Amino acid sequence: MDFLLEGILAITPQQLVMYVVGILLIWLAVKKEYEPALLLPMGFGAILVNLPLSGVIDQVMPGIGETHGVIEWLFQTTIEASEALPILLFIGIGAMIDFGPLLSQPVMFLFGAAAQFGIFFAICVATLMGFDLKDAASIGIIGAADGPTSILVSQIMRSDYVGAIAVAAYSYMALVPIIQPFAIRLVTTKKERQIHMTYSPKAVSRSTKIAFPIIVTIIVGLISPASVALVGFLMFGNLIRECGVLQSLSDTAQNELANLITLLLGITISFSMRADAFVRVDTLMIMGIGLVAFIFDSIGGVLFAKFINLFIKNKINPMIGAAGISAFPMSARVVQKMASEEEKGNIILMHAVGANVSGQIASVIAGGLVIKLVSQYL
């Protein structure tokens, strides 16, 4: 009978903590419907990898010898060695995005750039708190609210905190409906949130929509080569959408491919949530710094919009600036919901979408620039 109790007796307090974390992520996915396609596999995976003598990670089993686990294999091959899963996911994301609202209002590019302020602020905070520069850079990217970019940067930087960074990035993405309204209200008045905007977009030709992903890929590849894989696959997915001759592939990329990659990515990330690597004071610090980065990204975009309003006659609702983060399309929806609550009938969704999709591009470029800058000092 002893061998039947071997697993139970081997459970550590740290592993019990991870069971609670896993159950919490599943609860958020099921009860709150926060990014369920990602948080549910992450939560279940956190339980799997923390079972004593778990067969999903590499271990030495008594009487059997060394075994190889599928989750560790997935992590080593599709994230650690190649970043394949995060990059492939961007094909699906690119196929979902309509850049029309951005192309009809090019000024929205500025809001995507402004909403990356939190990244660099968090890097400074993490450095002051004693993290190595490579780890600080990786932690700062959490503020982009872009899971694939956070994973890519932390892997290229060889950060020791890939798991905590991935969990923080995706958790805060899922919590956009809670965090962003708080951040927006911190720096706006009710009158500012009630600013009414009309939407009169300029027509965007099909040739422009086809040319856009090609041009962006070339430009980003020249100025930020470290991010060209993410940007390139994002733009490739968008090109599939806009070319007009690959509708079935576009539908597949948006649905089956994106869903499958998201599921695999969630359960693969859970390898980094092993108790010995995750239940540490450093992890709590990373979660805290990541939250600060996320809040300051949102605030940075809002403050930029307020600055622009000093010089223009037709005022911009500053909440649009918060949509400049990368959490597409959640952030745009949150901004629209707040606008309609502040003033019934105020529809600023398409303005917010323009800022939101520009943030998707800006966050990836910011990640590449961070890699490039930090590499100069390592």
TrEMBL record:
Q: Where in the cell is it found?
A: Cell membrane
Its chief place of residence is membrane
- Entry's Gene Ontology molecular function annotations: lyase activity
- Keyword set includes Heme: no
Residues passing through the membrane, by range: 12-30, 37-57, 84-103, 110-131, 161-187, 210-237, 284-304
Q: Is Nucleus one of the keywords?
A: no
Question: What is the recorded name of this protein?
Answer: Uncharacterized protein
Q: Which UniProt keywords apply?
A: Cell membrane, Ion transport, Membrane, Sodium, Sodium transport, Translocase, Transmembrane, Transmembrane helix, Transport
Q: Which organism is it from?
A: Clostridium symbiosum (strain WAL-14163)
Q: Which GO terms describe its biological process?
A: sodium ion transport
Membrane topology field: Multi-pass membrane protein
Q: Which GO terms describe its cellular component?
A: plasma membrane
